[in-house]
Amino acid sequence: MDLGQAVYLRLILGALASFLAIILWSKTRDLAWMMIIIATIMAYLGTLYEIMSEFGIINVSSLTIGSLPLMSVLLPSLPTIFVITAFLVMVNRKYRHR
After folding, report:
1. What is the pLDDT of residue 97?
2. I need a labelling partner for 48 at 20 to 30 A (CA). Which of 3, 74, 88, 97 fits?
């Protein structure tokens, strides 16, 4: 599998996961599930941003803090932050009822 096929596969799988997440979002009002859905969408946005920056479509150095590109740090971290939030909501829910 060459780089082009890997990029294509990441785009297709990310789009499918995001599409299903958006469908689920319209059917649920549970905060934990909504955080997982947002994490999935943020992961796909991170993939899109990474691919567009690799191909030179987006200027990575436009938003920086010092010499650190903000979006290159923020986008990969956001899905994990939303998953952690979802887990915290579930842990809080399970231990609050005891």
Report:
1. 67
2. 88
12, exposed or middle or buried, with CB in 10 Å at 0-12, 13-18, 19+?
Answer: exposed
CA nearest to 89, candidates 44, 42, 19, 38: 38
> SS3 string of 35-82?
HHHHHHHHHHHHHHHHHHHHCCCCCHHHCEECCEEHHHHHHHHHHHHH
Contact 93, 35 (CB under 8 A): no
68 pairs with which residues across the strands?
Answer: 65
pTM, two decimal places: 0.85
Q: How many CB atoms lie within 10 A of CB 87?
A: 13
